[in-house]
Amino acid sequence: MLGSLTHPEIDQLIKDQSLGRIGYTSNGKTYIIPITYAFDGQYLYGHSREGKKIQIMRSNPFICFQIDAIQNLANWKSVIIQGEFEELIGKQARETMRFFIEQLQPQLLSSTSTPTHGLSHFHRNEHSALRSIIFRIKILEKTGRFERHK
């Protein structure tokens, strides 16, 4: 059976997962990479070191985000989000980082899934992060599909 997820089912899938793939475009090329995220019911939150991904999203903030829960090829759920990248700074970034860490704390983490040096690595002037860029994805549209073997 193939079908569409309801809005509550979409939100539940987003909450249940913590790894998704972000897609962004630059100069006619599309990039898709996995990232860890946290979800508060309204926004997806993530982090990254300064680099190509952040530079591209700053110049073209419209992104696509995919989240899956796959048991096997006959039993899966998938959500696609159209959204807008928003970089966070200062107090808002620190509060988001606390939320992000709390959400991922129960899981086994790697050095790339958590921001470098956590909360202590922000400039005192609250305008930027030394190593980690904290961002959120404003959700503009979300859809979901599923397949269930009877």
Instruction: Find the count of extended strands (DSSP E, 2+ residues).
Output: 8
Label the structural class: alpha+beta
Kindly state the mean pLDDT as a whole number?
A: 87
The assigned CATH architecture is Roll
Instruction: Please bin the fraction of helical residues.
Output: 10-25%
CATH superfamily: Electron Transport, Fmn-binding Protein, Chain A
Radius of gyration: 16 Å
Per DSSP, the total helix count is 3
Which CATH top level class fits?
A: Mainly Beta
Distance between the termini: 7 Å
**How many domains, as an integer?**
1
- Report the portion of residues in β strands: over 45%
Q: Name the overall outline.
A: globular
CATH level 3 topology: Pnp Oxidase, Chain A
Low-pLDDT runs of 5+ residues are 117-129
Main sheet overview: 8 strands, antiparallel
Order of helices and strands: EHEEEEHEEHE
Describe this structure in words.
The longest helix is centred in the middle third of the chain and has 15 residues, at 90-104. This protein has a single domain (2-147), classed as Pnp Oxidase, Chain A. Strands 1, 2, 3, 4, 5, 6, 7 and 8 form an eight-stranded antiparallel sheet that branches. Helices cover 22% and strands 46% of the residues. The protein is globular and about 50 Å long. The protein is an alpha+beta fold and 150 residues long. The protein has three helices and eight strands, in the order βαββββαββαβ.
Descriptive keywords:
about 150 residues, alpha+beta, Pnp Oxidase, Chain A, 8-stranded antiparallel beta sheet, 3 helices, globular
